Amino acid sequence: MHFDWPYFWQQLLLPSSNFLSGLGLTVTMAVCAEVIGIILGLLFAQMRLSRNGVLKRIASFYIWIIRGTPLLVQIVFIYTGLAAAGILRFQDISVFGMLVSGSLQAGIVALGLHEGAYMAEIFRSGIQAVDQGQFEAGKALGMPPSMMMRYVVLPQALRIVLLPIGNQFNILLKNTTLVSVIGVSEMMLVTETINSATFRTFELYSVLGIYFLLLTTCWTLFMHWAERRLELSSRRPAPNMEPVAVQA
């Protein structure tokens, strides 16, 4: 087997415009799906912790279904299965002058729904890890549950769940390759297309792996930086709130 080093370095350092477009699409999908996942995660975590039995069962059922089935099956089901059943067909739309294909919309929705189930468990565990005394203090001050959750519980839970959220986003970045099965031109599908024309399989997939490694490494470094910032802010001493005597 002959490894074509010149071709490898060319694809790594001077990638084609199609590959760069696939790279941008990969990051865009991951960010959009993460936003959806965080919103759904917060919502379903609250439902899991609710005293309302119906809400708790709905959240448990959603998490059970999503976490118990493969992501690839979910992607194909949302894009192909729902259309075949006449329930939902994703149509191409224009957003700020850019064409967003139906397959891309379905991919983002599927990734977001999948992420939401894992985020729900992450947020739930983070909220439950907050000292119960904080809840009691909020109640003693007469704070409504929504205000207590926003200003007291969630800021503390964020410090606990920051690292799991970062790890989950790394997993999401790699899972974007699965949407290639429904025709989304992210990095995986672009690489497969180039490979079908050049048959430089080893070189091309080596480049693809390196780009994903760079993406996940950059995100990991950012999460370490954010973690240190949170630790420093938590160690910062509280301002002196003692009244100052005023001389007559």
Explain this structure:
The protein has one domain (5-234): MetI-like fold. It contains nine helices and two strands. It has helices at 5-13, 17-49, 53-68, 71-84, 102-129, 132-140, 145-175, 187-198, 201-235; strands at residues 93-95, 98-100. Strands 1-2 form a two-stranded antiparallel sheet. A hairpin with a 2-residue loop joins strand 1 and strand 2 (98-100). Helix 1 packs across helix 9 (201-235), helix 3 (53-68) packs across helix 5 (102-129) and helix 7 runs antiparallel to helix 9. The longest helix is centred in the C-terminal third of the chain and has 35 residues, at 201-235.
Main attributes of the structure:
2 strands, 248 residues, 75% helix, 9 helices, mainly alpha, two-stranded antiparallel sheet, globular, MetI-like fold
What does the secondary structure layout of this molecule look like, with pairings?
Elements: H1 5-13, H2 17-49, H3 53-68, H4 71-84, E1 93-95, E2 98-100, H5 102-129, H6 132-140, H7 145-175, H8 187-198, H9 201-235
Antiparallel strand pairs: 1-2
Helix pairs in contact: 1-9, 2-3, 2-5, 2-8, 3-5, 4-5, 5-7, 6-7, 7-9, 8-9
Short description:
This protein has 248 residues and is mainly α.
**What is the CATH class?**
Mainly Alpha
The CATH topology comes to MetI-like fold
Q: Count the beta strands.
A: 2
Count of individual helical segments: 9
Low-confidence stretches: 238-248
Task: Calculate Rg over CA atoms.
Answer: 23 Å
How is the biggest beta sheet arranged?
2 strands, antiparallel
User: What is the overall pLDDT average?
Assistant: 90
Q: Can you tell me the overall shape?
A: globular
